[in-house]
Amino acid sequence: MRHSVWAYPWDLHDLGPGAALSSIAQAGANCISLATSYHAGRFLQPGNPRRRSYFPEDGTVYYRPDPARWVDAEIAPKQAEIVDTEGDMLATAIAAREAGGSAVSCWTVCLHNTRLGMAHQGHVVRNAFGDPAFYGLCPSSEAARGYVAGMVAEITETYRPDRIELESPDFMGFDHGFHHEKDGLGLLPEDMFLLGVCFCDHCITRASAAGTDADAARQMVKNHLQAAFERELPQAQFPDFPTQGPAAFDGKPALAEYLRWRTESVTSLIARIRAEAHPDSQILLIDGAASWQGGVDRKKAAAACDGLLYCAYFTPADRVHAELETARAALKPDATLIAGLQMFYPEVANAEDLIARACAAGPLVDGLNFYNLGLVPPARLGWMRRAIAAMGDI
User: In which band, very low, low, confident or very high, does the pLDDT at 344 lie, cut at 50, 70 and 90?
Assistant: First the structure.
């Protein structure tokens, strides 16, 4: 079993790398999942002694890219300033591993990047009306694909982490969230989903080349949304959404075909990442119950890499086993399955709740990832240790 803790590089710096890695090991983990490419946010950090509330630099990477590697790239990574001012924590973690310490996994945000979206507006997700979602690069864009595959290749070749955890190599939905969101309509889940389906030029070109009528699908979505905007009150048109997944749209053949097609962009990007990454680093897709809404075909996507890190953050303990059973069934026999669990309150009530979730996951998984070192009180690392011990791994 490989048990890990998600962590930010600034937390390692502020706690002290040695102290941070030691606390993770004392909590029963034998791996650290260190943010290596990340987005902006406002983080309350009870586990960080210096930065109690922190706004990280938007859309940057926490390693040292080689400028020569990116000279011809349309989209390139930007190194976060704190790598220079506070040190390369990824290199520090790798050095600690080489000295006999914890394994290192690179938690890598792929296409969710507002800074890059604003700078490269021709490569972002666009809805059926052509409006951009600046926080999400599109997986159908060759420039965006080259950026993600190149970034993972560079990290794995330079640092040789034990694994890469791919977050957001898919289509970002409309409901992902942004600053001061306004919705006076009262969007239904079906409306929210359809507002996030991408019809950018890259998707239209790629779908058309595959024989899919993207224009017909786009018109269907526009018609649906326009009708929703004109009603006095919301009224569901797809009553089986989202419980039936993509099948809820089978009554609209052009749209159903387009939704099936768009999984190709995601699967082929994941396959490209795996092909271009160093073979010594395992590649896992961060997955979840609703990942199909981002264009993920779980079985195909998992087969394109080395397995899944399945986040069951909001799954009650009595449903964890069944949910992970479904995820395991989508994998090849030798593929890796890690369960992602959070330690946020009140989503997780107490230590006993976390223990119950971990024990439900245990028979099906190859390890657990716990969220997150700096975002929870240090005392909750004790919850994690008790959960791992209950599985018999301490």
Answer: very high
* Average pLDDT of the chain, as a whole number: 97
How confident is the model at residue 93, as a pLDDT? Answer: 98
Dihedral angle of Cα 300, 122, 37, 375, to the nearest 10 degrees: -90
Q: Cα dist. 283→34, 198, 306 in Å? A: 14, 26, 5
Question: Does 191 map to a domain?
Answer: no
Of residues 103, 93, 228, the one with CA closest to residue 163: 103
pTM (two decimals): 0.97
Q: How far apart are CA 28 and CA 23, in angstroms?
A: 9
Q: What is the pLDDT of residue 85?
A: 98
- The predicted-structure confidence for 71-96, as pLDDT tens digits, reads as follows 999 999 999 999 999 999 999 999 99
- How far the first Cα of the chain sits from its last, in Å, is 11
Residue 305 near residue 273, CB atoms below 8 Å: yes
Instruction: Name the domain count of the chain.
Output: 1
Alpha-carbon distance 15 to 13, whole Å? 6
361 contacts 320 by C-beta, under 8 angstroms: yes
70: region left, alpha or beta (phi > 0 left; psi from -120 to 50 alpha): alpha
Residue 179 forms part of a structural domain: no
CA atoms within 13 A of residue 8's CA, in its CB half-sphere: 25
Contact between 307 and 270 under an 8 Å Cβ cutoff? The reply is no
CA distance 28 to 361: 16
The length of the chain in residues reads 394
pLDDT of residue 180: 81
CATH of the domain at 335: 3.20.20.80
Q: Which domain holds residue 304?
A: 4-171+262-390
Asked, for residue 164, whether it belongs to a domain, the answer is yes
pLDDT of residue 159: 98
3-state secondary structure of 270: helix
- Specify if 39 maps to a domain: yes
pLDDT at residue 179 above 90? no
Pairing of strands 336-342, 368-371: parallel
For residue 381 the two structure tokens come to 């690392």
